[in-house]
Structure to design on (447 residues):
């Protein structure tokens, strides 16, 4: 699926749905490997505070955890996370300074036959959230992943 | 950390079973510190707590000599008003203080097998004496003298051999001497690091129980424990009912374990974990059955 990638379109003036900070308060956090657990717990509280519950909350937290873990393992070891509510949805954006996510990971619609191969995180989050976009960071380095929680 | 905070950590941390300073039997903890005061306070707390629990205590020293550690330990005992005398505890066989040179190195060379043999021997010794278990505190700075990969492997093998059993093992990591990356790697091999996901597990006659949380901060610990199940040539049950959080990599490792095994693997787990396993297509593995734990 390439249709929901918005290559290069990440201007701050964009009024596109899910632009961070254009509505209400944002939750922001920096993370590295040792902070994965703490960030997940904070995201769970913040998303619940912004109205998510039940399976929608569970899936959103799983998705955030996978993107954060991906940034730690493949994206240079650390990153930034933003969370906000807009247009009745809870949004999350995770940015890192790593080499970027290979297109084959983003687009694949089948998993490897054996579980000895790694990497099910990206495949998983595509099934756990909506409106997901992968954007290369300013200057061609880093990745910005933005997505919204599913409606309950 | 100031002295008063060290004291506070002693008072608050000491009494909570399952905390890093009062670990449960089976825990394998990565305990970071930033100052020597913090390190010494932890040595005192873990020693006194272990003895109070009726365990034998083994201290493996590196930054200090055994004699310096005896000095750190001397002082008011744990709330009894009695003076704690390390040498008396050593003479009574309840406390052993060993430099890493004797437990982890042979003639100055890191010896992975010696380190594990030494811990196993200490456990048998405790059993003979009728102790309730052993608390072992290791100054992990010994790893700075050893090959990083080999020494990390020993930490992982420790999970498979000892955790979930009669030993509480705490490894003290000096944040000033290990790089951020080296520390993160070490923490990920430990099922428990304060402030990160805590995994507890135990081998059972039927297989394995898992409790707590698994994420990128302790994923290597799960991998090392699951590896021990692969060669077991009979049906096994992994009771993950008490596993509150599992990430995608943890789910993959569970599926991989079942895939590599010759016999059936049953995973009993919460509906959330069962759903995650189903999302990553773990049900494609023929010899794996996932059973949501019923109410």
């Amino acid at each position: 699926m390439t249709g929901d990638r918005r290559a290069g379109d990440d201007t701050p003036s964009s009024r596109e749905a899910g632009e961070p900070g254009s509505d209400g308060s944002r939750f922001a956090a920096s993370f590295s490997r040792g902070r994965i657990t703490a960030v997940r717990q904070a995201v769970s509280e913040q998303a619940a505070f912004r109205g998510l519950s039940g399976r929608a909350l569970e899936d959103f937290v799983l998705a955030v955890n996978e993107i954060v873990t991906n940034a730690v393992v493949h994206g240079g070891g650390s990153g930034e996370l933003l969370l906000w509510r807009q247009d009745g949805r809870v949004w999350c954006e995770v940015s890192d300074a790593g080499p970027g996510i290979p297109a084959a990971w983003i687009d694949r619609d089948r998993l490897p036959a054996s579980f000895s191969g790694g990497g099910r995180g990206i495949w998983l989050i595509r099934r756990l959230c909506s409106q997901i976009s992968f954007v290369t960071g300013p200057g061609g380095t880093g990745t910005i992943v933005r997505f919204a929680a599913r409606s309950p | 950390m100031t002295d008063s905070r060290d004291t506070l950590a002693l008072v608050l941390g000491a009494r909570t079973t399952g905390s890093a300073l009062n670990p449960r039997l089976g825990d394998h903890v990565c305990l970071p510190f930033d100052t020597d005061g913090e390190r010494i306070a932890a040595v005192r707390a873990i020693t006194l707590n272990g003895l109070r629990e009726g365990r034998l205590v083994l201290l493996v020293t590196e930054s200090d000599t055994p004699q310096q550690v005896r000095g750190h330990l001397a002082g008011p005992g744990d709330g009894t008003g009695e003076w704690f005398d390390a040498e008396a505890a050593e003479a009574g066989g309840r406390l052993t203080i060993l430099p890493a040179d004797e437990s982890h190195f042979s003639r100055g060379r890191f010896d992975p097998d010696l380190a594990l043999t030494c811990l196993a021997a200490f456990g048998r010794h405790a059993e003979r004496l009728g102790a309730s278990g052993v608390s072992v505190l290791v100054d992990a700075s010994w790893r700075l003298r050893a090959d990083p990969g080999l020494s990390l492997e020993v930490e992982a093998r420790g999970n498979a051999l000892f955790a979930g059993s009669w030993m509480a093992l705490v490894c003290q990591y000096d944040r000033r001497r290990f790089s951020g990356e080296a520390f993160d790697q070490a923490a990920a091999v430990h099922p428990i690091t304060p402030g990160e996901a805590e995994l507890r597990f135990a081998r059972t006659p039927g297989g394995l129980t898992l409790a707590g949380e698994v994420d990128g901060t302790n994923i290597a610990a799960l991998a090392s424990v699951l590896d021990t199940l692969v060669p077991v040539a009979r049906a096994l049950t992994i009771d993950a009912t008490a596993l509150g959080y599992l990430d995608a990599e943890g789910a993959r490792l569970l599926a991989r374990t079942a895939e590599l095994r010759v016999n059936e693997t049953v995973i009993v787990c919460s509906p959330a974990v069962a759903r995650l396993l189903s999302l990553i297509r773990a049900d494609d593995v023929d010899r794996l059955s996932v059973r949501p734990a019923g109410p």
About this structure: Chain A touches chain B at residues 32-34, 36-38, 40, 58, 62, 65-66, 69, 72-73, 77, 111, 114-116, 118, 120-121, 123-124, 127-128 (CB under 8 Å).
